Amino acid sequence: MLETTRKRKVYQAILMEINRIMKEDNLRPGDRLPSERELSERLQVGRSSVREALRALELLGLITTRHGGGTYVQHYRHNKLIDILGYYILRDYKTKRDLIEMRKLLELDAVRLACKRATDKHFEEMERILEASEEKIRQGIVPTEEDYKFHRIIARSSRNSLLHRIWAPIVEYSKTIREDSLSREGRPEQAVKEHRGIMEAIKRGDVAESEKRMAQHLENSKL
Questions:
Q1: pTM exceeding 0.85
Q2: Which domain holds residue 150?
Q3: Pick from 61, 81, 80, 79: which is nearest to 71 by CA?
């Protein structure tokens, strides 16, 4: 039992050290990771331990291995960790309720700040997202990704990096809730109208109206 615990700690330490190396080497999505041998040498651990840690990261979708071509960093949104955690989080009613409540607080704070800090660049991006949403609806496709992107650009337009970093995983955890909401008949069209109303209120710098529209949108989405 003691040996198993020790191995687990070593394994966790290797995962953390690989993360440190990725930051140290400034590796971005699409960049190639150092080889197994190089990681083993840099971390002063056996290659089998490095291989096990890399396998765990790949199973979570955080890295991808190309046959004969090395191992590469994946964008965080491709990872399966959020889906796995989200599944277990949403099984508990109280945690689900707390998650929804936290998202509402962040979204309202985001529109408040966006009214003061959003730029033309942010509004241009919002408009592109809304047009893409409308085009998907015309094609009979539910614009789930565009819904996420619209809320994300509002969070980004708050120009508060900490708010955005907290917002992102919370919205990811509630992915299944959003998908269920948008699958309701007529909801995608209504959601786009609500998004446009939120954008126009932010453009005017009308904090009260922006908050009101966002709160109503989230209520209508049954989040």
A1: no
A2: 82-220
A3: 61
Q: Which residue has the higher pLDDT, 70 or 110?
A: 110
Contact 213, 198 (CB under 8 A): yes
DSSP conformation letters of 135-175:
HHHHTT---HHHHHHHHHHHHHHTT-HHHHHHHHHHHHHTH
Q: Is the domain of 34 the same as that of 87?
A: no
Longest dimension (CA), the chain: 63
pLDDT surpassing 80 at residue 208:
yes
Cα–Cα distance measured from residue 180 to residue 86, given in angstroms and rounded to the nearest whole number = 14
When divided into structural domains, the chain yields a total of 2
Q: How far apart are CA 11 and CA 1, in angstroms?
A: 15
Render pLDDT for 171-202 as a digit per residue (tens, 0 to 9): 877 777 777 888 888 999 999 999 999 999 99
CATH number at residue 13: 1.10.10.10
Name residues whose C-beta falls within 8 Å of residue 181's C-beta, 6 or more positions apart in sequence. Answer: 187, 191, 221, 222, 223
